[in-house]
Write a structure and sequence with these properties.
With 210 residues, the protein is α+β, with helices and mostly antiparallel strands. It contains seven helices and five strands, in the order αααβαββββααα. It has two domains: 17-54 and 158-197, no CATH class; 60-138. Strand 2 and strand 3 form a beta hairpin.
Length: 210
């Protein structure tokens, strides 16, 4: 009876291990395909960020002028400044992009700052006349991609993309490790290489990173 139970237990363990290995292989393959673009994007932009002296694109700045409705800004109570009207006017008239990151009001001037990846626009409105000066700065495609990598001025949706991408990469790494543990002939070598890689990274930082 004991021998039968032992044989059944061994057979169950073997089947269970095969299922886990098969699932890990499936998970690793398809997660790798789904996250391929993510890995490629963050790898390329990691290089451009690390070598901005080489890959830094040209910065373009344009200046524009205009005039808004005086009643929107020429009021005694600063709380009554028509913020939404000013912002929408600049978006529609001057094709301003990005989210409003700053809106300041003082006695003589209203300033509005819009920011997006690789983009910034600053508007300065004279409260007496309604006339304004607008400056747009764009860092080009490389700057745009670098800001996406850092999640700078990209909005909540893109921050979610970064978080989900990180989860995908964690799962790809762990599923790959699980696969390695099921391959007896390569298990020890793989784990030694894993430890060696971690040690090399630590030593590089310890002796050359500062």
């Amino acid at each position: 009876m004991k021998e039968k139970l032992k044989a059944w237990s061994n057979r169950w363990k073997t089947v269970h291990k095969r299922r886990i290995a098969k699932f890990s292989r499936w998970l690793h393959i398809y997660l790798s395909m789904v996250s391929f673009v993510v890995v490629l994007f963050f790898s390329v932009t990691g290089v451009t960020l690390n070598h901005t002296d080489i890959f830094q694109g040209k910065t373009y700045t344009t200046e524009e002028k205009g005039k808004i409705t005086v009643a929107w800004v020429n009021v005694k109570d600063t709380l009554e400044v028509a913020k939404l009207s000013i912002v929408e006017y600049l978006r529609n008239t001057n094709k301003v992009k990005g989210a409003v990151s700053d809106f300041r009001i003082d006695e003589t001037q209203v300033s509005v700052t819009f920011k997006g990846p690789g983009y910034q626009a600053d508007a300065f409105v004279n409260r007496e006349t309604g006339e304004y000066e607008l400056s747009k700065t764009q860092t080009g495609f490389v700057g745009f991609m670098n800001d996406l990598h850092k999640g700078r001025d990209t909005g909540k949706a893109w921050l979610w993309v970064i978080d989900v991408s990180a989860i995908f990469l964690i799962m790809v790494s762990l599923s790959g490790l699980m696969l390695l543990l099921f391959i007896k002939r390569k298990r020890i070598t793989g784990l030694l290489l894993l430890a060696a890689g971690g040690l090399i990274i630590y030593l590089v930082y310890k002796f050359w990173g500062q």
